[in-house]
Task: inverse folding
């Protein structure tokens, strides 16, 4: 197997379907130069049919979704949380990897907008009988869903499926590639708590190598004008990360200096194919967020984590639960609002669809290979020793 060279898919362990396009260096990001002042979003029509990644979005696209997300935060804080904008439409959740927050929040988001929501039980589905990914998609397509939310352990799988179905597709995380709604919900959380993201110093710390959250966040925060820092042991820093438009650090204290926001990441063991760290203890000692390390960030710095957290491995419990500094539960709340915004925006863009165009050939290329979907539920990180 040839290793990927793209910064979006660096790891040969996930090289199962195809190489997703590389994240362009910051200077080449899709950032329309004309948007300098206060862009008017009133007349802006979100031009995309699917949400496959942050890559390919521009600042107006992102801000349009965040504005609508803001409105849904307010609705979600009311006693009655229904908006009928997806009345009569069908949303299908197709999660080939375990998920609590993302799957749950897409379900809630769809229901609050009035859609009929079906979450496919993958564990008991035909996938387990050897059906190819594309056959599964074609079958679902024939049921005429309007929105398909997909999580898959292979980078590029969601894009592949988006070409085979007639409905709007939302990437809920593909391998180590992208997790666009996580980046959007993180941006909404920061915007609401800190204000304008432009000029903020934001550190993303931990297992960057295996993190689709980091990739989508670097892209999103760069477009919104933040100074992004990546802090990780050398073994968990992707080769080529220096081209992502972020500053790279191996030392937490140096990287956190003066930061407004500190995002912690889980060690994603299910994607590790070898020894990356000597031990969990040593990892926490050098890269786990505790009060002393956090004291190098701004005194007002906020702490974030996409979840699931491994307390005592990448983050000290007291910080995760800190009443004023931790935004972790707020991120979950923003997740529902942002997903409502995404679903509504894509549903509006949907062309009048006919039945499956029948273009897909159900070949083995779409087979869900490499589905090492092991989940880490326990607190230990089970790192291998050298
Ligand atoms: C993240 C993911 O699945 O990539 N979690 C999430 O969506 N809430 C991060 C992780 O699994 O560590």
Result:
């Amino acid at each position: 197997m040839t290793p990927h060279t793209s910064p979006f898919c660096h790891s040969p362990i996930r090289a199962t379907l195809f190489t997703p396009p590389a994240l362009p260096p910051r200077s080449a990001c899709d950032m329309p130069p004309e948007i300098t002042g206060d862009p008017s979003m009133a007349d802006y029509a979100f031009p995309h049919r699917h949400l496959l990644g942050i890559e390919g979005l521009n600042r107006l696209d992102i801000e349009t979704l965040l504005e609508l997300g803001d409105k849904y935060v307010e609705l979600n804080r009311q006693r009655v949380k229904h908006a009928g904008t997806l009345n009569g439409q069908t949303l299908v959740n197709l999660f080939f990897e375990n998920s609590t927050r993302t799957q749950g929040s897409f379900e809630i988001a769809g229901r609050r907008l009035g859609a009929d929501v079906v979450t496919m039980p993958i564990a008991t589905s035909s996938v387990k009988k050897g059906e190819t990914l594309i056959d599964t998609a074609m079958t679902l397509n024939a049921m005429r869903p309007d929105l398909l939310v997909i999580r898959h352990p292979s980078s590029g799988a969601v894009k592949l499926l988006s070409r085979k179905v007639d409905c709007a597709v939302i990437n809920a995380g593909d391998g180590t590639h992208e997790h666009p709604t996580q980046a959007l919900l993180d941006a909404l959380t920061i915007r609401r708590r800190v204000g304008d993201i432009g000029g903020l110093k934001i550190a993303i710390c931990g297992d960057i190598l295996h993190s689709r959250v980091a990739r989508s966040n670097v892209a999103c925060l760069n477009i919104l004008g933040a100074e992004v820092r990546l802090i990780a042991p050398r073994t968990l820093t992707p080769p080529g990360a220096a081209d992502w438009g972020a500053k790279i650090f191996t030392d937490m204290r140096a990287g956190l200096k003066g930061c407004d926001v500190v995002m912690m990441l889980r060690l994603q063991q299910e994607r590790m194919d070898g020894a990356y760290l000597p031990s969990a203890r040593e990892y926490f000692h050098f890269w786990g967020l505790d009060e002393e390390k956090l004291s190098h960030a701004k005194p007002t710095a906020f702490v974030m984590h996409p979840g699931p957290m491994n307390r005592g491995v990448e983050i000290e419990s007291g910080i995760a639960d800190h009443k004023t500094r931790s935004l972790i539960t707020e991120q979950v709340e923003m997740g529902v609002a942002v997903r409502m915004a995404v679903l509504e925006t894509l549903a509006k863009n949907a062309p009048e669809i006919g039945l499956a165009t029948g273009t897909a050939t159900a070949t083995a290329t779409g087979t869900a290979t490499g589905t090492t979907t092991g989940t880490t539920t326990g607190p230990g990180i089970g790192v291998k020793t050298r």
Observations:
- The chain is about 30% helix and 10% strand.
